[in-house]
Structures are given as C-alpha cells and as structure tokens.
C-alpha cells in the first residue's frame, strides 16, 4: 500500500501553493502558523525551481465575502472567520503573504472551502494546460493541502505533497487531546502517504523532475 510517483514530466505537472496568506502567516495573525512562516524559504526555492523547469505554478487563497453569505459551516468552526477578522475578501489579511514569491502572471485561485477544486475553475485550468500531475505545498497540511490533494486524486491526477513545504499550527484539546503543529503535520503526512499521494521532500521532488 502507499503511492509513489515514478517520474515527473514538467510539461504535464503543476505546483499548487495553498493559502499562503497574511492571516495564516503574519506574526500574531488570527490563524497563525509559525511553522508556515518558517518554511517560506524552502517553498520559494521550490517555486523558482518549477519556473525554471517549465512546471506551471498556481496559488490559492481561501477567502469569504464580507457579508458572510458564502461561509457555510466555516462560521461555526472558526470564530475569526465568523467575525470577519480572518480571510475576509479584499482585506490585507486575506492577501498572499508578502514574502511568498508569486509573479503577477501566475494564476491565483480564490476558494471558499478547503479544496481548491470545490466551486472553482481550477480543474479546467489544469486540464487546459495538459496537466496530469499535481504537487501540493502550503498551509495547512491537514486541512486545505490535504483536501486539495485528495480531491486531485479523486479526479485521477497523479499526486504528491512536499513535506518540507507544508505546515500547520497547534491544535487545542477539544475533548480528544491536544496535538502540536509538528504532530498534526506528521500524522497528516502518514495518512496521505498511505492513501492519497507521494509524500516527498522538496529535494526529492526536484530529483524526480530532472530525471531523464
């Protein structure tokens, strides 16, 4: 059991950078992931590698309308979202973090749920470019990265997650015990590797993408 990519064809591969926004990454942000901020150098290096290799790069941002009409259950789950303190479309906090290396011509998918495929044209853009392999990075490992790459697997894309270019935050005890960010990250990668995607380091991914 488990899934492995045997090769990566740059012309048929895309990197999706998930939700690297101020509300997740800025110091003191409502949904802050310090580990997400710490892995930005690795992520940026991977983004630049993909550009040089001819691998398409997509970005996503999780946003909600200021009137809250598209929040659904997120209003129940996340008080900062319900109060418009986080991920409110058009606010500075909802914008991509300034240290993340995105070029203006690289697509930005605005989404309202964990998965980048849900209610967006992401799949249409991938298929239009002939992409059949999707590599995921960003925040958070267990929510939007996990949901997006699992949704990609459901749609028959070849899939991988970059272990050192994803991150999350500490989870409090809600009746089942607390978990640190490192524990949540590791547990999610174990699940993904068994059932959904190849879990690679950024170095391993680069090696695959440059194999003759």
TrEMBL record:
Keywords attached to this entry: Hydrolase
One Pfam family in the UniProt entry: Isochorismatase
GO molecular function, one term: hydrolase activity
InterPro entries registered for this protein in UniProt: Isochorismatase-like_dom, Isochorismatase-like_hydrls, Isochorismatase-like_sf
Boundaries of every Isochorismatase-like domain copy: 13-203
Top-level taxon of origin: Bacteria
Name the record gives this protein: Cysteine hydrolase family protein
Organism name: Amycolatopsis silviterrae
Lineage: Bacteria, Bacillati, Actinomycetota, Actinomycetes, Pseudonocardiales
């Amino acid at each position: 059991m488990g899934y492995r990519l045997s090769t990566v064809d740059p012309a048929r591969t895309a990197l999706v950078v998930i939700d690297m926004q101020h509300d997740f990454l800025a110091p003191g942000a409502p949904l802050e992931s310090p580990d997400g901020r710490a892995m930005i150098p690795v992520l940026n290096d991977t983004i630049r590698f993909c550009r040089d290799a001819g691998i398409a790069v997509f970005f996503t941002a999780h946003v909600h309308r200021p009137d809250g009409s598209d929040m659904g259950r997120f209003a129940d789950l996340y008080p900062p979202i319900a109060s418009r303190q986080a991920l409110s479309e058009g606010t500075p906090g909802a914008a991509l973090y300034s240290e993340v290396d995105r070029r203006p011509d690289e697509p930005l998918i605005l989404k309202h749920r964990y998965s980048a495929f849900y209610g967006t044209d992401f799949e249409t853009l991938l298929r239009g470019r002939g992409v059949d392999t999707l590599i995921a990075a960003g925040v958070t490992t267990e929510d939007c990265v996990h949901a997006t790459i699992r949704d990609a697997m459901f749609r028959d894309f070849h899939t991988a997650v970059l272990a050192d270019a994803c991150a999350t935050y500490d989870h409090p005890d809600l009746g089942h015990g607390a978990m640190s960010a490192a524990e949540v990250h590791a547990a999610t990668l174990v699940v993904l590797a068994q059932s959904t995607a190849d879990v690679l380091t950024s170095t391993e991914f680069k090696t695959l993408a440059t194999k003759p």
